[in-house]
């Protein structure tokens, strides 16, 4: 049991799970726009997510405790380095304009964790009330815009709807995390639960879920199967938002909530 728990903890802490979530959301975009399986963009984003997330989470620890790193963190460093090499391999297969857009999102990720030039503590994460929106913007951008632009498709009405829907979905996914971190986050961050309280934050989540589902009706290419799956994932996400709490179980957000994009993809495969 201890080995299994350690394995699950490593799977979560090394950002493999969140990478599968990004992979799933990108694959959903490909499906929604009738694009076939694109190994280069899917694998690039998978390995880039592990590299980027581990940089954000562990860069400070690695800088100040490099000589005394715990074994699990050393393994994560090795994994991150391997993923960085694989990210570069698949990155060389992408078009220049895609790499330029990736550079924009990479800068947002970098300055999310690292201080701005000339400052000691000022990061994007520390800016008042912006944390959740920066994360949602990056996730929506990489899982919608990148696969669309990689196919040289026009940024039309349907793409903008997909982008808006994905942005809202990521904010919804972040709500249980924001509630969980309420007792740890600096009050200066002005997170949604800090500003609205837990009950109103959950109510906001329900409202956003209604908007998320409503957007599906405006898409030109929506099928009955897609609408059914979107409705199903809306209800399931609503339950996770509703049952989230400050004192939630260890894997509630880090595993189960982050599994929702993967579940969404599985449901698409089952019903389409």
Distance between the termini: 37 Å
What is the CA-atom radius of gyration, in angstroms?
19 Å
Number of domains: 1
Overall structural class, as computed from helix and strand content, comes to mainly alpha
User: How much helix, percentage-wise, in residues?
Assistant: over 70%
Q: Report the sheet with the most strands, covering strand number, pairing sense and barrel closure.
A: none
Mean pLDDT: 87
Proportion of residues in β-strands: under 5%
Number of helices: 12
Helix and strand sequence: HHHHHHHHHHHH
Number of beta-strand segments: 0
Which regions are unreliable across 5 or more consecutive residues at pLDDT < 50? none
Shape: globular
Gist of the model:
The protein is an all-alpha fold and 272 residues long. The chain contains twelve helices and no strands.
What can you see in these coordinates?
- The protein is mostly helical and 272 residues long.
- It has one domain.
- Helix content is 74%, strand content 0%.
- It has 12 helices and no strands.
- The mean pLDDT is 87.
Strand-helix topology:
Elements: H1 2-13, H2 16-32, H3 39-64, H4 71-91, H5 96-113, H6 131-150, H7 157-180, H8 192-196, H9 198-216, H10 224-243, H11 250-256, H12 260-271
Helix pairs in contact: 2-3, 2-6, 2-12, 3-4, 3-5, 5-6, 6-7, 7-9, 9-10, 10-12
């Amino acid at each position: 049991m201890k080995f299994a728990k350690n394995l699950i903890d490593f799977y979560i802490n090394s950002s493999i799970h969140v990478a599968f979530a990004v992979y799933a959301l990108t694959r959903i975009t490909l499906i929604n726009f009738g694009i076939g399986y694109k190994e280069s963009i899917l694998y690039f984003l998978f390995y880039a997510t592990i590299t980027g997330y581990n940089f954000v989470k562990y860069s400070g620890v690695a800088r100040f405790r490099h000589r005394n790193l715990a074994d699990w963190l050393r393994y994560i460093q090795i994994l991150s380095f391997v993923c960085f090499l694989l990210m570069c391999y698949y990155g060389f297969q992408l078009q220049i304009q895609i790499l330029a857009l990736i550079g924009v999102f990479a800068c947002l990720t970098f300055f999310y964790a690292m201080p701005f030039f000339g400052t000691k503590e000022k990061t994007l994460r520390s800016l008042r009330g912006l944390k959740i929106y920066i994360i949602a913007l990056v996730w929506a951008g990489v899982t919608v815009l990148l696969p669309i632009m990689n196919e040289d498709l026009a940024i039309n009405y349907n793409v903008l709807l997909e982008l808006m829907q994905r942005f809202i979905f990521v904010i919804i996914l972040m709500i249980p995390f924001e509630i969980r971190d309420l007792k740890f986050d600096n009050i200066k961050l002005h997170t949604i639960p800090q500003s609205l309280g837990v009950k109103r934050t959950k109510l906001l989540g329900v409202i956003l879920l209604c908007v998320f589902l409503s957007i599906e009706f405006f898409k030109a290419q929506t099928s009955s199967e897609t609408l059914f799956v979107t409705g199903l994932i809306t209800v399931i996400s609503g339950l996770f938002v509703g049952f989230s709490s400050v004192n939630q179980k260890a894997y509630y957000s880090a595993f189960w909530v982050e599994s929702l994009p993967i579940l969404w993809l599985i449901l698409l495969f089952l019903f389409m």
